[in-house]
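Batch job 17 of 40 flagged for manual review because the log was empty.
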Amino acid sequence: MKQQKIQQHFLRIPFETLVVWLLSLILCNYSSHPASFSFVANALQTPEDEAEASLITVDRLSRFIDSGTSYLSRVCHTIEQDPDQIGKFTYTAFLDEDLRTDFVSEGQNDYNLLRHSGAIYSMILSYNRSPSEDILEVLQRAVRWLKAEAIGPVPDMSSSKIHAQNDDESDGDTEVDQIVPKGGKSIPNLLAAWESGAMKGGGSALKPTAKLGGAGLALVALVGLEQITPGSTPLEEMRKIGKFIEYMQKDDGSFTCRYKPHKGGKDDSWVSLFYPGEASLGLMYLANFEDEDSPHRKRWIRVATKALLYLERYRRNLDLNHVEPDHWALIATSKLLPLLDSSSSDYWRVYQHAIKVITSIVDQPTKKVLVEKYHGCHTSNGDTCSTSTQLEGLLASMTFVKDSEMFLEEDEAEPLKDRMMFWIRHGADFILNSMQYEDNDHHNMVGGVPKIFPPRKGDDKEVRIDYVQHSMSAMIAYERMLNREGPYAPKGKIQRVASAAKRNLKKVASRVSRDSIEEQPLNWVLSIVVVIAVMVVAVSSMMKAAPKSEKQI
């Protein structure tokens, strides 16, 4: 089997490269005959390409991403929209109502700091895809708000005279600096991301709480902007947030998920299994920002590895239907594995954890139900956010899942990556259809993604910033995969050149008109002849090369 795979790989490269090279010549010689070229470009597609093209195109993805970027830009408050909350997002809106771009509006009473940072994350991805001053201004406003309203020191409650309280709410607003008793102190070298009633709005009396996931996503936001505009946030401040994550980690790699001064500090009364993935992703952003020989880099990698190893142990013996679709952990894994020794047990345990999470996502429903009943949605109820987050995880995982991984289903087996791509294509098609692209009703909701698609009742039409953020992040990853960019780029030099040529040929083909065969029969015949000639030359070349390759193996 191994010998056969090596031989197939050996034979595949020259064939694709030769085809792409000759078709490039056709493009130069027959650029004045678009019908014939379109035929040749289509003949180049593999069955997988055809299935993918029937659902997803770069143009569809680009329109979705641009519209989502526009929506998040419009709801990130300027000084004219909201002088008291510059950089805060309008958290919720509805497709059938006029978009309110100020914070003081009905329904804005449950602001979530993690989703604020998540919106920044997707806008960073959008900026890196297509840099613009408008997006940069949004990022800077949103990050300034995050730093001014949420990032703060961690009160040292070990010597505090405040007794732990059972409730998380009080009769009035309580800020972080009011929690520490007079003469009290903060834990040195730690910074956290704090939520409070004043931040959540709507008269909430939530007492200040620092969440593990909030620290992780705050790091993603701060490091992401720092990479775009150096000097935005001092490295030492970002390290202090990383140290807070480390401070919250236990010896076995698990975490205390919340720090509540009014309850005496670390609070283990509630656990989120998504927070370790968010924390790990933040640490991976910070690790990749550090110098390669920095001891801090090794420190962040160690903490993130411990976190994912804990999740592996926790989920190792769980049934697939009890495994959370932990997309944050999958994204973190995609960034951690390249930094680990691939011969180490840690590498393979982190990898196997990812495989289990992936398998749990694509295990149910059946392909037929996914397409015919759910119309590509990954859940039975049309939930756009759940579908988007699972797409984020699957797309990140396409960068590291081995080709040899198999998905077993009763009496059948198929490559796991093939099954992942089936879920990705149909899920993305569902998400692309869910966005509002036109402003026919003049509600200014272009770029909005509803909670449920298609919406059946009023609440289904809710548009929350995380619905837009997660779907944008997923479609940006899909676009990068189609364009073979970043971690999706082919590894070898020949493959990179061939993929680039093939991609450019297809782009040109998509722009030209597709004249019918009857209108230009001669060009069509010439194209057929050229394709046959290419195949004859390629097959002849492969037959000559085959014995030599067998000897080498």
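Reviewer: the log was empty due to a logging misconfiguration, but the result itself is present. The radius of gyration is 26 Å. Unflagging and moving on to job 18.
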